[in-house]
Amino acid sequence: STEEYEGKLRSSSTLYVGNMSFFSSEEQVYELFSMCGEVKRIIMGLDRIKKTPCGFCFIDNRYYSHDSAAKGIAYISGTKLDNRIIRADWDMGFIEGRQYGRG
Amino acid sequence: KRGRYFDQGSSESESTEQKLESLITRVGEKGSKTLQSNLQALADVLHTEIGSSSSVKDKVLRTICFCVTTLTEKITIYSTLVAILNARQYNFGEELLEVLMEDLRNALALQEMEKARILVRFLADLVNAKVVASSSIMTLFDTFITVTYEPDIPHTRSDWYVYMILSALPWVGSEVNQRKKVELERLFTILETYMSKRSTAYLPAIQVWTTDQPHPQKDYLEMLWIQTKNMKDNEWKEHILLRPYTHFDSEIGGAYSHTLPTLNVPNHTEESLYPLPHSVFRVYETSDLQYAPPGYILPPFDSMDRYLAEETVRCIVQSHHTNRKECVSALLVFGKGVDRIRLPAEYVITEVLFELLFKLPSPPQVPVCYGSLLIELCKADPATFPQILTQTTDLLYNRLDKMNTVCVGRFSQWFAYHLSNFKYQWDWSSWSNCLSGPPDGPGIQFITRVFEKCARLGCYDVFSELIQPPFSTLLPPEPLPVFKYTLEEDEFVTPLPECTVATQLLEAIKEKKEKKTFEHLTSILDTLSSVQPELENDRDKLCDAKVSLLTHCVLHVSSKTISHSFMALHKFRPLFLELAKTDETKLAVLKALAEFYTNNPQVHAIILDKLIRSQVVDAMVVVNWLFLPTTVQDFHKQYVWDILESTVQKTNAAYHSATKELAETKDKLTKVSHLDEVAMGSEERQELEAKIDELEDRVDESEKMQKDVYLSLCQRFISLLGDHLARCDQQGSDYESPWFQSTLDNFRQLLIKNYTQLGQYTTLLESLAFTPNVDYRVLEIFQQFQAVL
How far is CA B14 from CA B18, B20, B131, B409, B522, in A? Predict the structure, then answer.
């Protein structure tokens, strides 16, 4: 339900980052979002067929959790990575399979 | 985001209370109406609504109190609102004051000292609004000043109570000067005595600049005291604050003021914590204001106008930092709103943002907060801020040799981040004179750091293309892994003897079947002694060699991305735990990691973190690695300090979470014990008791680890710095090398940053680390550390 979904988002520590360049690497995302707190892992969105980065990723901030993710949205979302304005938003949490985009 | 809770629009479901909350929150935001009519209209609405029900009234009271401490730059607007309502309905003011005093009592008890400070300021401003009696605010100040008479308290306690008075006085000074002159004079005498006895021996530890030229860097309280005295001499005039109540004289002039209930200051206990002092940061001189309109000048550094302008900017940043757009628009509104003097607001804003960024030991928010605000300002006012930032960067760059190296680190990180948002455009050639100086000169060191960070934020290949000779020599090496066991021969390098073993190992690692693999891998590693016969009779060395080879190979097969490395480390974790049992062998893992990622300090630090988290190594092993000669020589580089900080943080966090969990479990047990008649109770109790035993062990262990880490760090830093000083003294050379300065500055901030943890070990540190025979130039930083507390 919508309520459950919103509850999950409020306690979430995962970010969805979109509008990235296909050339931006996992290391670059680490560098950028580590400025807001310890990043636990990054799951790069991959092209379903070519298995290459395709412009989005999930950031799991589990260690310092919700707070670091909130900072990511406040300070990093809307600034540039590889000259593209990236967008970060709350995500319910990464589930295997979601890393495959439409390419 | 605040917007989420105070959204506009009036859907049918939105209750009156929510509507009122939204109106109160937004009052004074720029709109078509003037502030005066905005306030009048809101007061009219509220006056009608609070009569309708007590729950509405309650909501209004709560909302105003909440806004005061979260939208601190609008204090005078809220006091005006309260003034109008109080003039119309006497008990409204009384009830509000009850809530406010309760909030203040709680804030002091819970040690939310910054919140308390703002509440006191609001109470003071309510004197101007004819809501609080002037005698009452003087009584409150008198209550606070008695704290300065308390024996055996840390200076941070009395300082903060004095600060609460001084940071409220500019709002109410003129009013109490007219009505309570005698009381004010008496307060001043006591303040004067307190201020003259204060010691600020800690200042060198928290100053951004190592010199007072061109700007004296005073202690925050001392500076405000000077500004207060100047304001007093100037008949309590100021030109910064908006005072909307002056427009409502006719309406509120006849209102009755209230007497504040008495307040008891909570006693000092061993657990009490108070904010640390800071020094006032300045960077511009009058001649620097090239991008301000002609005739606009900064108020003198010792004038109250300067404090009030800076304080307003700080309040706006504090209120809105989680919403950059809102924050920037509030900052720009402030700039336009000051019309009684010609204030170069853009320079004040920039200076304050750098003050916050450079604040020692830690900035109030993460550094990137200020970085993203500066980017937003450049977007919002592209005709002014980019120029001011270019100029400021130049000013700071030219004074790098006088800057605390911890701040140099933050400066370089900010600059790289800023450039990454503006296509890395910068005229490096304007800094070419640094290239003729020594390679460890401040300019070269700074540019090297900026390049490294840029290459990490951007793609290495793209960024390195942008940098032309001669600056390209300062680029970091390409961040490629170094696998030293490769069999590929070339004319310069013959393969190491271990290479054949490494090749077998790599083959085996790539195999899928795990269980078998581990045995297989161990048997391959066992053959190392046959290629390196000198290891045969030295079990310890053989162990280290095995672990080193394993680390190299695991990292090598998984070096494609960090995710690959994490997966490989996870898979082979049991093998690492099996092979690396002693501190020496664990150190071999870290040595191999450092060799493999020598050109990629970022991934080096990330993997090292992962190894701590998965308990392959512990904090003590990291400390051992840090003080290896090969690491020590990098103490002028950022990555070492990043690793140290992250390791110390993990040690603190482990202790903290163990203590917290123990307390929670004990709580649960108490609750269960009350229910022990219930059959379930006893079983659950046994479980809890077992868990408590386990947790108590964990607390002891993590506390011991924390203590060992701090003590060992202090002892090693002292001996390292002491050796350096002795060597330089013997050779008659200058000891203040960039390496020395970086080590000293970072060590000093490490102490201050962890003062809550270190506080309990000061006696231990005094007897086992900072003993009287330590070189005075090192001992000094411990004295400064103790003086800060």
Answer: 6, 10, 32, 49, 68
